[in-house]
């Protein structure tokens, strides 16, 4: 079953403001993989479950055309409001029914998204649309993250862990696929040329305000907000206070380093 937790307009606007673009390490990994299997210039890349387009926009320099798709109209509307690029279009549609021709796609990506899809149907659709030797790249960050600031990293990371613990009753079962590093998804990919890369560590400099914004993009936070709105808002306010106290600063514009671990599954159609 596909799972739809990203439909709200406010959720989509948080996405546009606070979602992180895929790190360079992931882009390099995917492009090196593709380079060994397809001739340049690369034609069409399709980024499925694109949200507000951060992951689609990262593909623009390397492909003649990029299509970003998402089942949520609200996410696609926000994506369209971001800077326009002539070789990038967005469409609202299900991952399991992509609006592209058979054997027309060089690369299919899904960033923090494939675990939400109906995997069996999606893989059939991927097989239909990929060219021979076309590639897929499904990658995601893991829920646990570290926050670094001067000598306060341990305490800040502990606060982040406690936020994750508070949100744990609202975690959808599909997130288990993320926790296991997409192993189950890797196992059902029908191609023999495939690999799973774990523990790709990436650091992002961002303001504390952006870290708090990022928490609000998590599906589990949005579920918490629906079920217990006051408690959810309180969690954010308390977290902000704790961060500021630990860092001994007064502004949420203060820059910290957020460290994420990514996993990536790559495969190529025969
Ligand atoms: C965690 S977000 C990731 C968005 C974006 N790729 C990013 O990294 O910021 C997952 C996205 O998958 C989309 N999604 C979930 N199920 C889908 C489906 N069956 N078909 C297409 N998109 C889907 C959601 O609407 C949501 O925007």
UniProtKB/TrEMBL annotation:
Q: Where is the Methyltransferase type domain?
A: 46-138
What keywords is this UniProt entry annotated with? Methyltransferase, Transferase
> What InterPro entries does the record point to?
Diverse_substrate_MTase (IPR051052), Methyltransf_11 (IPR013216), SAM-dependent_MTases_sf (IPR029063)
Q: Under the GO molecular function aspect, what terms does this record hold?
A: S-adenosylmethionine-dependent methyltransferase activity
Q: Which organism is it from?
A: Xenopus laevis (African clawed frog)
What CDD domains does the entry give?
Answer: AdoMet_MTases
Q: What is the lineage of its organism?
A: Eukaryota, Metazoa, Chordata, Craniata, Vertebrata
Q: Name one GO biological process term.
A: methylation
The protein's name = Methyltransferase DDB_G0268948
**Which chain positions lie within coiled-coil regions?**
none
């Amino acid at each position: 079953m596909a799972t739809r937790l990203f439909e709200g307009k406010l959720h989509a606007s948080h996405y546009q403001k606070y979602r992180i673009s895929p790190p360079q390490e992931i882009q390099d990994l995917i492009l090196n993989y593709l380079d060994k299997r397809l001739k340049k210039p690369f034609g069409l890349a399709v980024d499925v479950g694109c949200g507000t387009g951060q992951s689609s926009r990262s593909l623009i320099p390397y492909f003649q055309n990029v299509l970003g798709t998402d089942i949520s109209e609200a996410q696609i509307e926000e994506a369209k409001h971001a800077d326009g690029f002539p070789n990038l279009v967005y469409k609202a549609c299900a991952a399991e029914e992509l609006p592209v021709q058979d054997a027309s796609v060089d690369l299919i990506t899904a960033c923090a998204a494939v675990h939400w899809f109906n995997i069996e149907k999606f893989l059939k659709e991927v097989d239909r649309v990929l060219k021979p030797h076309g590639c897929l790249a499904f990658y995601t960050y893991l829920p646990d993250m570290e926050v670094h600031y001067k000598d306060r990293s341990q305490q800040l990371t502990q606060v982040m862990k406690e936020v994750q613990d508070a949100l744990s009753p609202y975690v959808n079962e599909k997130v288990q696929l993320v926790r296991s590093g997409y192993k189950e998804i890797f196992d059902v990919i029908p191609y023999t040329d495939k690999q799973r890369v774990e523990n790709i560590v990436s650091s992002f400099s961002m303001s504390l305000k952006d870290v708090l914004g990022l928490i609000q993009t998590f599906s589990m936070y949005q579920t918490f907000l629906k079920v217990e709105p006051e408690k959810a808002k309180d969690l954010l306010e308390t977290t902000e206070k704790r961060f500021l106290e630990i860092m001994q600063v007064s502004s949420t514009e203060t820059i910290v380093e957020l460290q994420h671990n990514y996993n990536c599954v790559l495969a190529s159609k025969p």
